[in-house]
Amino acid sequence: MRAREPDIAGFVERNGVNVAYEVFGADNGRTICIGPSNPIIHARAAKTYAPWLSRHYRVITIDPRGNGRSDRPADPQAYGAAIAADDTLAVLDELGVERAVLHGTSWTTAALLVANAKAPERVAGLVLMGPLLPVGEPYDSPILSGEHFWAPLADREGIEVSNCAFMLERYAEYVDTWIRLAISEPYEHKMVDDFIGWGLEGTGATVADTYIGSGLTPEATGESTGAVMRQLCELVTCPVLLIHGTDDAITPIEWSRAASRLYGWDLVEMEGNGHVPAEPVRLNLLVRAFVDRVLPPPPVSSTWTRALARPKRALYLSSPIGLGHARRDVAIADQLRKLQPDLDVDWLTQHPVSALLEARGERVHSAAAALANESAHFEGESAEHDLHAFHALRNMDEIIVHNFGVFHDLLASEAYDVVIGDEAWDVDFFLHENPELKHTSFVWMTDFVGMLPMPDGGEREAFLTSEYNAEMIEQVDRFRRVRDRSIFVGDPADLVPDPLGPGLPGVREWTEANFDFAGYVTGFDPVDAAQRDELRASFGWAPDEQVCVVSVGGTAVGRPLLRKVIDSFPLARRRVPALRMVIVAGPRIEPASLVGSDPPEGLELRAYVPDLYRHLAACDLGIVQGGLTTCMELTANQRPFLYFPLAHHFEQNLHVRHRLDRYRAGRYMDYVTSTPESIADAIATEVGRAVSYEPVATDGAARAASMIADLL
Amino acid sequence: MRARRPDFDGFVERDGVKVAYEVFGEANEPTVLLMPTWSIVHSRTWKAQVGHLARRYRVIAFDGRGNGRSDRPSTPDAYSDAEFVEDGVAVLDGTGTDHAIVVGLSMGGLWTLLLASRHPERVLGAVVFGAAVPHLRDGETKPADEPQGRPTHPFDTELDEYEGWAKYNRHHWLHDYDDFLQFFFRQVFTEPHSTKQREDAVGWGHDTDGATLVATRDAPPVLADRSEAEAMCRSVQCPLLIVHGTDDGIIPHSNSVRLAELTGATLMSVEGGGHNQFARDPVFANLLVQDFVEKVASRVRAPQHRTWTRALRRSKRALYISSPIGLGHAQRDIAIAAELRKLHPDLQIDWLAQSPVTSVLEARGENVHAASRFLASESAHITDESHEHDLHAFQAVRRMDEILVNNFMVFHDVVSAEPYDLWIGDEAWDLDYFLHENPELKRAPFVWMTDFVGWLPMPDGGAREAAITADYNAEMIEHVARFRRVRDRSIFVGNPSDVVADDFGPGLGPIRSWTEANFDFSGYITGFDPSDFADRDMLRAELGYGPDEKVCIVTVGGSGVGGALLRKVIRAHPSAAQRVPGLRTIAVAGPRIDPAALDPPAGVEIRAFVPDLYKHLAACDLAVVQGGLTTCMELTANRRPFLYFPLAHHFEQNFHVRHRLDRHGAGRCMDFATTNEDDIAVAIAAELTTDRGASYAPVETDGAVRAAALIGELL
Lengths: 712, 715
Prior knowledge:
The complex is a heterodimer. By secondary structure, chain A is an alpha/beta fold. In chain A, 39% of the residues lie in helices and 16% in strands. In chain A, helix 2 packs across helix 3 (108-118), helix 6 packs antiparallel against helix 7 and helix 12 (326-339) packs across helix 26 (700-709). At the A-B interface, strand 8, helix 11, strand 9 and helix 18 of A face strand 8, strand 9 and helix 18 of B.
């Protein structure tokens, strides 16, 4: 899922060629136009900044000719910097934008400087990142050499692949080499994968034509290109911000230093970054500071509260994925308020957690409306009873950048005494990437540690998960101060015995060294036998009925499981005549779509039940997915249950299963190989069975709260 | 001492009235013109701004006519609003300034707006705090007359008594001006813990008189009515920032709400703020003005070339701020840094420190941060505050307020530009105080270290000093309770029993239990290992002290304060030498006392400077010193007999240090004022005979290791 869909997606047509653009945000008089890139990538490369920036400005992105949604004309004359400049101005015309800040990376510099030369009155400022700007030494780069570009096909490596024949004949290799050259920071596999993917949507011909159309004739040299660029630079009268990685292996940083010196332009050197700096947060902040300078925001009145006059406030971020954490977070917040009666708790969280919180009278901060929805993203990543949780997290990259932006904007304008992040991956990750942005105390909470590969992911998945873990270890080790508390919702025994990756410490060993343990937090007290009888009576369940509650959480992912369980009902009912099955479809599944209008006797369909946990506490058997929260609710209430982890969901298959095994709770079922017959067998065996699981802690919320309260 | 002196000063003259100005940071641009406000104060009211702003911009401040170094014409006409505005223009002219960002407070806010309205070409932008624009509210005549909810009192009528705002009265100003000042500045500073700000302002008020103030009050108003006032506000075209406290006791906040409506400018409200944020919330005010200037001046500013280092590429760095007062802490801080490096070999430590600490650090090869040169000298301030063997330590720290603001801003600039993993402040009062006042500025773990807790009044300070020290303590207690996160570690350099038995003040509870609840204890840190001096005979031989000599070292630290004590002890030598055969007195003059002026009798050696003084103190038979903790504890750790003379009015030396030495059973406390040369000679003889050193309670040797372990956990 995208972090933000465009408000407008359209095309301008010039000489029969469609050039695609997208617009994010409404016109507020301040517009940033991200110019068309070299067609080795396209406008999706703006995914980590267009959404956040569009909270403050109107943002326009343009796909280059030759990639993305733009046309790919066969005519070589249809490419090049001057054409891209005209495309950019045409998009501004089409949208009625008189003036904008133009933003471009690498080759796009040339296009934007031409646009400035043609229409300087349209350019409020220029942000040039890793610019191709040879206005000074060195001039001997192969990317400037016509001789090199036009040389015959040969085996080439590194920057030498910038060769016409190589692009045309060995495009995939070219893309792979070039992207890995452009993105040089460790752990940036996702960004590399994205960029290579976009590259492979294009062709070698359009990339080559773009260079050729920009003047890379056989005679071209660094000096000749430099002379042209200097002429263009001298025409610039607007403010310019140069951003350049010190480890840029494509356009040397010396070029930006020379331009800064020659033209008095601001330069931010990104120490340790490559050609396309893998620093979405810092880049967003740099661009914002620049745009606010050249296109000042309208006056906004604000308040600064004297320190000793500030009320004590906590900001609670509760991960919305699967809704699982809302109840435990409310329980922790309640305990925290007992310890700190003068504490105000605001919540920054999304649907569906926000709905539950509001129903409880909690205050959800209005900024939450701006969050991109992680829950919808996960649903979008799901297939039939299948959710590759690791890839889903990985593909959430643009969403977490955007949501960190929302968080950062909020913290910049309001004072909080503590931020509590229950699996708030965005805040935890980007605070470690930008520790200077930490304004206040931060509590990190999670119920699992370690991305683990699924067996069928092979070596690649094992490598990627270990890289994620390695980065986390390095971040925590380097910046211990980011997490003022790290709370594991569980006990050390809940941690899997697996290693975090080759050469990395074990999950358990590392977590014990780096976390405090609150014990599990259910958010309720388990019911005793008398209470259970009362509950059953209140639900209308007879004492001799065997009630099986089937629930698959709040998403549509669970539909196939519900169908399979419904199919097993007649068989199960035959074996257990007193069986009563309550199917809770949840908000995203229409109950009538599961069975016809006439469900068999003993089978009830409910769209929604309030306080589902009470039904689970009172049932004789639960049938659920492998989510931790529901399974642990059943465990805490000593209920028999069958659980079907989603396929490829490493947390459900590995972490949750490990934990349930240690409580000796639940019966693991494999969705794919289970049949109505085998499910009916399992129901008959398990329903009403007396179980004696390991007891679940009941003081987890109080323990977590006291760990947090120490900071206040 | 001022935090920053002007680069130059001068006068402009209009119609025979001289107006005094000062220019700071002459080489910088753009220019920031700090307008005067009501003549009840003068340009020293900007003392917390000038140091910070002048490091970036060219800053001009001038004394409004009627106070400071400016003339005090006697006719009301000379004090019209227009005159102050035209004085501002004249100062711009007189300093060759085409245009400036103009900043004004209260009446100065009105004049700033008038200046921008009448001379738009001279004003790049304007910032007004608590602007006293009249007529903006219904039924109001002059802002200072009738703030919201304030009862109206006649200004000209003589009253039987003057209570509350009735003190705003011609007759009262002429007869009991001080009473009016006291009252008025309580209304200006409505924030708790504002004793110093009120005291300053009352002091500046007394630089003029009631008659002059009456003349300013009788001046003809420039804006006759509401429509003129509104038209003037609407005519301001330059960028404008309006700031107003919600608890302003002089001009109601609603005045600026209306002003913002009329001008379309940004209003920054200060929740809980009084009338003058420049003085009471100086860090906030400085950063706000800086931010405004940066925005307004962005087109004329120099290109910026910055580096941002990605997080995982950053080397591990700590910034160590070592208090320079008395030089005492350098040794211990170096010892802690050395232990910290053992725990974190990859840690780079930069020091933000001043002379004389910097010389010690540089001699040890430590890296003193280049921004240290911007620090205003606390040490020079303390010297400045000293008299003959007398230093009112509490008042000296209190009067160091503008230096502390200046130095905090230097610190803030350093840590904004470069990421540090840790800030260590050994009695870095500026850091600790202003981080609690502005907790949003904290960006790294902060370690607070001190060797005493609690401001204590000297008995002769009376009720007033007792009240002020209690107020300081109360603010600290409130700060720490409210913002625990500011101090990631609080380390007391000593042990719980070293904390005095006193209370913080009425109703504030005992110092010791609070300190135990809020600090970790490292034990004392000498910075050396006394076992290095176990073979004292060898050490004496190395230093040229004979086995039969009785060596008495007299040392008074690095400041000029000790001259009187030094001379008195030198004069006592002949008498002491009669009593102690073989007495050899060595007086260490230090860098600030001219040895030639001491005129020693026979048997006394004067040294300007002794390298490794601590070795001599370890080897001597007796020392005579002031009451500073470091030297006394060095002697204690080395079990040397010593006489110590706490500086008069120095609460730390008289109470905190003495309490600690008593616990060790160390040293003989002497009172400088009542002790004559013979007393000293007798005491020298007595201490040399008894040699009480052996019975001192021992001083721990692992303090630096323990402190480093407490700090190292944060990395």
